[in-house]
């Protein structure tokens, strides 16, 4: 899973709006309504009281981190003989730790290592809710000696759970199972069916895991799909010493980019290296250099569109300085939009630029003669393109054709993508799906908005934590579910990052860890979301 920083958004938009913002404003909550206290809603006690079997709950999570479940490209079902034991051990541990879940839900394996579970609802006419995660993790072979605790130890120390997968994303997988377990302990039964789909090869594309799981669900029309992706930002966003927005706030991914792989091949006059046609522009080296220069100088055009426009407009709602607020709230205005998109693309650096255009990354340059004194007759570039949801393969091909044909009509363009992903959709930020997840985020996490020294207690709202939609520039397993749940996917991992402290580096990095209390909050989050979306008597949030 890849996560972007939002800090650049504010820097560019302040430059657009006012140049320098001389005033520091309090960060206002998006929503000030109260969701009530536990005493006003008998259901809330389940989510705000101590979690049942709390110590065992944590042990179930830490044990899952002890299995080095690493997927491998080219291996049968993407699991090597070395990793097979780890996946088998994880499956046995989960079944041993969650006997209620295995007894009450239907549990199937897909391609040996992925899990598909069904908690059948009382009303089959209601569309189900789907919770997805993945059981594989990235390797931890580099700089193992730099880890404070061994990466596959699941150590609990200093208030944290340490280990590979503690964030990405055995954290969500085990928390989802624990949420079901907690609901079963309390005797709850869903009205909607709840489906749980855990892939085993997300980190290498999900072809044997999530793709196969989505195929199994062909014909199902989910009311909501929840995957990893967004998170909570704890620190402030600032321009210099001026605080623009006070944390915490949450971001929910309502869309993500997808990947394409292309090959550009040039051909030229070979010959002996002692007689190069210098200055003619006809050699392979010269043509490759021209193509690379053209790609660098002419990126794909900027397009400021949803969900980035949704992000800007929702940020505008919390801005008290009216010129900036007005600009953000009109991000989709036909006159202002292209100007904002161009400025964000040119002034925002690579992070912000990736939000407003499809990006082109040259991953390899291949050219060489068959001897030290032979000029090559052909050379190629392998290019990875990360597309906005609205960009098609045809539009990317046209872009390459336009750039290369002006250099040499004989240049060949080839789509070498091993897999063509389903068409990606964006979930509207005013949809019932977004509002459902947003509401639960605010119920569970708004206690974190309490002023320093004030009581931080679940069930007391304080200021409702702001929740913003966002575009994920990386990819998740949810890429495979668009064909069964178009515009119904929300990505959120219920943990927090302090960006200025460098927390993002823990993802796929050294000393991956999560606070113990955040794991408990994740269990509360998924329990509450399951209750509200699948158990609550009021089904008006989503039509069937």
Tell me the helix content: 25-40%
The gyration radius over C-alpha positions equals 25 Å
Fraction in beta strands: 15-25%
For the report, how would you describe the main beta sheet?
8 strands, mixed
Shape category: globular
Question: What is the number of helical segments per DSSP (H or I, 4+ residues)?
Answer: 15
Poorly predicted runs are 18-47
What's the total count of β strands? 19
| Average pLDDT figure | 87
SS content category? alpha+beta
* End-to-end CA span: 31 Å
Provide an overview of this structure.
A hairpin with a 2-residue loop joins strand 4 and strand 5 (160-162). Helices cover 31% and strands 20% of the residues. It is α+β, with helices and mostly antiparallel strands. It is globular. The protein has 15 helices and 19 strands. Helix 3 (54-64) packs antiparallel against helix 6 (170-186) and helix 11 packs antiparallel against helix 12. The strands form 5 sheets. Strands 1, 2, 3, 6, 7, 10, 17 and 18 form an 8-stranded mixed sheet that branches. A 4-stranded antiparallel sheet has the order 13-15-11-16. The protein has a 3-stranded antiparallel sheet with strand order 4-5-19.
């Amino acid at each position: 899973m890849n996560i972007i920083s939002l800090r650049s958004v504010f820097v560019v938009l302040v430059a657009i709006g006012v140049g320098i913002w001389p005033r520091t404003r309090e960060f206002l909550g998006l929503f000030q309504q109260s969701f009530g206290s536990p005493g006003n809603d008998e259901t809330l006690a389940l989510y705000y009281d101590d979690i049942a079997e709390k110590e065992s709950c944590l042990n179930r999570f830490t044990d899952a981190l002890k299995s080095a479940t690493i997927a491998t490209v080219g291996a049968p079902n993407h699991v090597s003989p070395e990793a097979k034991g780890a996946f088998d051990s994880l499956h046995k541990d989960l079944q041993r730790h969650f006997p209620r879940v295995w007894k009450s839900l239907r549990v199937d394996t897909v391609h040996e290592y992925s899990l598909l579970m069904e908690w059948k609802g009382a009303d089959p006419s209601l569309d189900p809710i789907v919770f997805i995660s993945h059981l594989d993790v990235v390797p931890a072979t580099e700089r193992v000696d730099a880890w404070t605790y061994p990466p596959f130890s699941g150590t609990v120390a200093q208030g944290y759970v340490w280990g590979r997968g503690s964030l990405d994303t055995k954290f969500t997988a085990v928390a989802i199972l624990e949420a079901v377990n907690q609901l079963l302990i309390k005797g709850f039964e869903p009205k909607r069916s709840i489906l749980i789909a855990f892939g085993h090869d997300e980190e290498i594309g999900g072809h044997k895991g999530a793709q196969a799981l989505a195929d199994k669900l062909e014909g199902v029309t989910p009311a909501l799909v929840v995957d990893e992706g967004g998170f909570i930002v704890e620190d402030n966003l600032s321009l210099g010493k001026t605080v623009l927005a006070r944390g915490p706030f949450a971001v929910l991914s309502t869309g993500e980019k997808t990947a394409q792989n292309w090959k550009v091949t040039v051909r030229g006059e070979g010959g002996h290296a002692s007689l190069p046609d210098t200055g003619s522009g006809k050699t392979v080296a010269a043509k490759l250099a021209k193509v690379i220069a053209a790609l660098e100088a002419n990126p794909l055009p900027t397009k400021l569109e949803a969900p980035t426009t949704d992000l800007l407009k929702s940020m505008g709602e919390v801005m008290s300085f009216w010129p900036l607020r007005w600009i953000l709230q009109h991000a989709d205005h036909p006159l202002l939009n292209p100007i904002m998109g161009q400025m964000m693309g040119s002034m925002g650096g690579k992070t912000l630029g990736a939000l407003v255009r499809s990006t082109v990354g040259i991953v390899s340059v291949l050219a060489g003669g068959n001897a030290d004194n032979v000029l090559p007759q052909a050379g190629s570039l392998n290019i990875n393109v990360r597309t906005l949801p609205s960009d098609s393969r045809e539009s990317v091909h046209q872009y390459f054709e336009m750039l290369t044909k002006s250099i040499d009509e004989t240049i060949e363009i080839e789509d070498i993508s091993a897999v063509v992903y389903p068409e990606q959709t964006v979930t509207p930020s005013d949809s019932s799906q977004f509002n459902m997840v947003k509401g639960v985020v605010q119920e569970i996490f708004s206690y974190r908005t309490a002023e320093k020294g004030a009581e931080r207690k679940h069930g007391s709202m304080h200021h409702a934590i702001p929740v913003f939609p966002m575009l994920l520039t990386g990819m998740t397993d949810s890429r495979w579910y668009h064909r069964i749940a178009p515009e119904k996917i929300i990505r959120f991992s219920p943990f927090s990052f302090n960006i200025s402290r460098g927390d993002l580096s823990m993802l796929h990095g050294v000393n991956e860890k999560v606070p113990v209390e955040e794991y408990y909050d994740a269990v509360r989050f998924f329990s509450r979301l399951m209750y509200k979306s699948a158990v609550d008597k009021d089904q008006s949030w989503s039509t069937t």
